[in-house]
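Notes, Module 5: Reading structure tokens.

Key idea: the token line is not a picture. It is a compressed description, and you learn to read it the same way you learned to read a sequence, by spotting repeated patterns. We will look at two proteins. The first is printed below with its tokens.
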Amino acid sequence: MDFLLRLDKKFLHEDLEKIREGRKQLCKTVLGQSQSAQGGAGEEAQRAHIQVAGTGGKENIIILEAVGSNLWMEGFQTEKSEKIIPFSQDREELRYKDNDHCCLLELSALQSTLGKLRSYVKKPKSEQKKLQSDKTYRQGFLAGVFVASEMVRNEFLERIVLADGLRNYTWEKALLLYRNWETVAKRLYCIEGGKSEMIPVIRVNDMAAMGAVRLRGEDMKNIWECYQELLRCLKIC
């Protein structure tokens, strides 16, 4: 499936909602698994081609390729490139790391960081593995995962990007949200086990209304505190 995601305040929510709705059609594998298990069945899942548009026309377009309704990010291309360039041949390299650093969760910073991937398109294939260890390349991958996967699945992240009062909110500060999206979504919406048709999007209003009840427990303490802080910053409660 093909989607457009415009990194523009006027269109961001509209485009994210279309991708959220489209996730229902991307489900061919058994959901409720971890992201890694979902991604491993990529051959059986439908693929999403998400055209991320910044400012400056086609020169600033990056096309991100994701697998399945959980939007496991696998590669990218530009308007002028012939094929998808994989982010990594090693699935372990696609996981978040403790030393990862990306950018501020703000539209211009995300555009700039993601746009740096364009400089790698013309590199020969023999250099790809070397490039994948490059800091700039890694940051571009993280920005891509954020805009076309994490932000789609968690409305809080969209609100952070659009909130003028949270311009200094860093990618690292939200790491707890990224790593626990599936767990929180299942707890919030009372999904048992891994048999659900699709893991829901975490919605801000649902968290404000139900979170205090659904996210109780010592194992959820730090995560719930993170969401409480965001609810206060976003003036939801």
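Here is the second protein, with the sequence above and the tokens below, as before.
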Amino acid sequence: MIKVYAANEAPKLVRKYLSADDDVFIKARDFFRRNKDIRHHKVVVYKDEEPLYCLGWMKNNPVNVDKNNPMVQMSLSNYWVYSTEDEGLDYSYVDRFGLFIYSELEEYSYHTAVMIRKHNPDAVVVFTDPNAAFFFKEDENLLIVSSEEELFQNRPELREKRTLRVHSEIKWDVKAVFMNQVSSFVVMTSLYWIKREFYYGPLNPDKTFYLIKQPVKENGLTALIANVIGTKQMIRSIRPDFIPVVDLGVHNDPNQFAGTTGEDVWSMFFKQLSDYSLKDVYNSEHVVLDQNSNLNMNPYMTEFVFSNQRAELKYGDDLQYNETVKKHTAEVLERVFPADAKRILAVVVRGSDYLSPRTKNFVPHGLTAEETLAKAIEYVKEKNFDHVYLCTEDKAYLELFQNSELRDMLIYVDQERIDYQKEENKDKLLIEIFGQEKSNPYLRTLNYIAVLEGLTKCQALLANVTCGAVTYALGRGTDYEFVDVKKLQDGGM
């Protein structure tokens, strides 16, 4: 990001200067891109031989990530290539708003303001930074004020417009997205997330591929599925001419499936999203690459992951397991489900890291295991279920059901379960526990897929919370008699 500094911060030795009549951000951007070794220098902008202000480059580093924890690091791209003549941008996010209030004039706020005004002349753009006067002339829909208070005193009718407040601090802030308070980097990403095109070779000149290449990081299987299928369906709605393909192999991406090998996690378990292979894509002329960690700063993805959109996602034919997974799943479930079973109640009891203080602001907390057991007993008696299919990764929860009056009708997959009573497992995420144990991550995931597919063979669903297993069962389009999931209806958080 290029920021504006006062004229008195000009260096004694000026390595680059521009005229105020130039397209200064574009020229400064190109200068900093070519001269990586002197990005610490400032570009001075003159008018009539007097310095007006300086431009300085800052790396796009989120201010609220843990630099020592690779699981929560974000490597954000710089927007090195863009212009006011760009076409095919995605304006659907900014189209929600009629008023944009920018707190600082810098590279991204300037460019997004220009593009928004060009796209929608009726939108009102406001800067509370006096530096905006260097770049804009005020008119009815472009205002420069000292504060929001002044703005609404002078233009009280603007209070009626839906407002997006834009700051310049790059920060991953889930709650702020839902409060319409985002960084200018987020607005840039919302416009340009489908414009990052690469040339890999001469094949398929008449086609454009959208390569979903995201780091897996701490995501579990159901989050991974939802992210990929959700991205594909968003692409289909925005740009139906794009051909989606997926490669979840990112260098130095620590995850519970492939460690840090960089192996494509998707192909380990699933079929490709289209009829084209990754070899085809990596030899094609037009490949739009999603922006890795930049997707975390995309408001669409934040809204999708942290709202009921994920719970309501339907996979349809977009989700296809490979032959190895299908064979393993069929063999496991044939052993688990009795041939004479008629009415089976699926019970999901999610605990583990959902109960950790570290996750309390990000995941819903529903019924306790004991309360869920009591509900299951009621349903079995009232609705005449002959079996209860238990889905839980918590060893203590399995033992709770095994020692209850449901013991003789209880069925479950013999999967790897965690003992959270152990001191070394307390307040740890599943991925951290898996990382410290020497188990086979591939086999563990195969068994978990069987667990999930088992949910689709049941007639009703009871769950203590809206978790990944629940969204999977519903995403599969399972036709349940009823679904009783704590907090499913009230927003999930």
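Summary for the second protein:
- The radius of gyration is 26 Å.
- The first strand starts at residue 2 and ends at 6.
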